Amino acid sequence: MKIILSLMLAGLAWSAGAQAQVQSTYRWIDPQTGQVVISDKPPPAGVKQVNKQLMGSSDDSSQSLPYDTRQAAQKYPVVLYSSPDCGEPCRQGRELLNSRGVPFREKVVATSTDMEALKQVSGGEGFIPYLTVGRQGAKGFLAESWHSLLDMAGYGKTAPYGYKPQGAPEAPKPATR
Predict the structure, then answer these.
(1) Using N-to-C axis directions, what is the helix angle for 88-99 and 143-153, rounded to 10°?
(2) Which domains does the chain have, with CATH numbers?
(3) Which terminal residue of the chain, N or C, has fewer Cβ atoms less than 10 Å from its own Cβ?
């Protein structure tokens, strides 16, 4: 009887501990003092710009990446500039990044404003695809140059087990009046 009771208490303690690891954290600016407040309790009514995060949840994608990849992503973020009509070069570039498990943002160049932003980043050229790794860039898809940039930044050569590849971005919606 004591053994069963001990096992039940141990199981109860374990399940309570597992639930306690996933908790919400709230961050907001106190309207009266102007200071940042971080709490496990929701903010009072009327507070604007509340950030809510689930701490310790297993679905946090950045936490599932290896330490070296997280460090590289923090120091040298990767951005892929593509366009809706880029086709095969952009697909190959996406596949290369995904095969190495590189977290990246994809910016779709669909308007003249987007193209001007790309030209500022790329030094005046509007060549697509364009890859930035930190402050370094590569125009067009040349696997060797992309691998070289990623190697220098410290990204892994292969994707970690269980890495979920990123797909192509949604096509931009046409402007409506």
Answers:
(1) 30
(2) 67-153 (3.40.30.10)
(3) C
